[in-house]
Design a protein that fits this description.
Blueprint (H helix, E strand, L loop, with lengths): L26 H14 L3 E4 L4 E5 L5 H12 L8 H7 L13 H14 L5 E3 L7 H12 L12 E5 L7 H11 L2 H11 L20 H10 L5
Parallel strand pairs: 3-4
Antiparallel strand pairs: 1-2, 2-4
Helix pairs in contact: 1-2, 4-5
């Protein structure tokens, strides 16, 4: 299934700047992306297999950011592992969630979530996961790959456990996030059966930090939530 099959929620033009094995962007692709950014001076989103995207606002220097990515891919600039950066900042994050009871895990999860904006990262589309499932995703998957964190306060990584564009993630969006109109549009476009809608397993997405909060936090060094 192509990424664009999820409709407006995902796009095949989004890629993830990390050294993942199935990364396929060429240098020419990156040049065209940068050129498009310079010409349009608007938000651009790049997403990839693990559901990350970077949002570049018009006051971002896209050439500088793309040069950093180029150095990273060429092995000339080291990346960072977000989980390691959070731990180095003083947050105790157990690998094994079994060490935390439900209350302690809830508090630890929010400690991680509210610390992520200082790295230039926010998370979204999480209400289909319980607290424990989301904690496992962050500690075992979402925050463990070496990558280039945004070097500009005008850029923000958006991380989602349902953002890969896979068949499974498409079904998650259809079940938990798409409106009735979006579901019907998807069905008309692709002619495939719709899964039943399901109630969210959590009610946290409306409380999550946003990209705007991330930039403010990074510029002031304070938590503005």
């Amino acid at each position: 299934m192509s990424l664009c099959k999820v409709g407006t929620a995902l796009s095949a033009d989004w890629v993830r700047p990390s050294r993942c094995l199935n990364y396929t962007r060429t240098e020419e692709d990156w040049f065209l992306i940068a050129l498009h950014q310079v010409e349009k001076l608007q938000v651009e989103r790049f997403r990839g297999n693990l559901g990350e995207e970077v949002v570049m606002k018009k006051d971002c220097d896209p050439i500088s950011e793309l040069e950093r990515l180029d150095r990273f891919f060429d092995g000339e600039e080291e990346g960072e592992v977000p989980l390691a950066v959070l731990r180095a900042g003083g947050i105790d994050i157990p690998d094994d969630d079994a060490l935390l009871d439900d209350g302690a895990l809830h508090d630890k999860l929010w400690e991680i979530i509210t610390a992520m904006p200082a790295l230039g990262m926010v998370i979204e589309y999480t209400d289909h996961l319980t607290d424990r499932e989301l904690y496992r995703y962050l500690v075992q998957d979402g925050l463990v790959e070496e990558t280039i964190l945004p070097g500009d306060a005008a850029s923000t990584w958006h991380l989602s456990p349902a953002g890969s564009g896979s068949e499974e993630d498409t079904q998650i969006h259809l079940r938990f996030y798409f409106s009735d109109e979006e579901r019907e549009e998807w069905h008309r476009q692709w002619g495939e059966p719709l899964p039943p809608k399901e109630a969210p397993r959590a009610n946290r997405d409306h409380l999550l930090p946003t990209g705007e909060l991330s930039r403010a936090e990074r510029e002031t060094g304070e938590n503005v939530a």
